[in-house]
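My current task is to audit a protein record that another person submitted. My question to you is simply how this chain folds and whether the tokens agree. This is what I was given:
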Amino acid sequence: MVQLTVTGPYTAKDQQKADLANKFIGRGSDRSSTAQYAKDYGPYANCGVYKRGDVVFISAEGNRSGRLTPDYKEITLAIKAKVVFVTDNLSDRERSYNIGEREVAEFLLQNNYYEYWLGAMPGRWRPK
């Protein structure tokens, strides 16, 4: 289990995702929690190699100046391996700041994934 560096009030919900995941996908600007979590995951962050059975925590940067968009190339590699993803749940995604989390959810839907753990913390996605 990866212990995330506390970056703010939302680290606790993100730690719930980290507790389930063996890999991480996320890129963020220098000030972002996403960038810190990638450091916390070390070689298991944005690693480019995924297999069925992996559980991948995706973090996406919120609506701030200088934000980086989700790493769709890396997410696509994981999709091809048919991993399970953990993300923010619907209520957290709907906060106005969480534009990146909404972008990730839309991308997963477009790539034949569905959220099967509705309403729970965290959101969980698997291929159809």
Q: What stands out?
A: Strands lie at 23-25, 55-58, 84-87, 113-115, 123-127. The chain has one domain: 11-127.
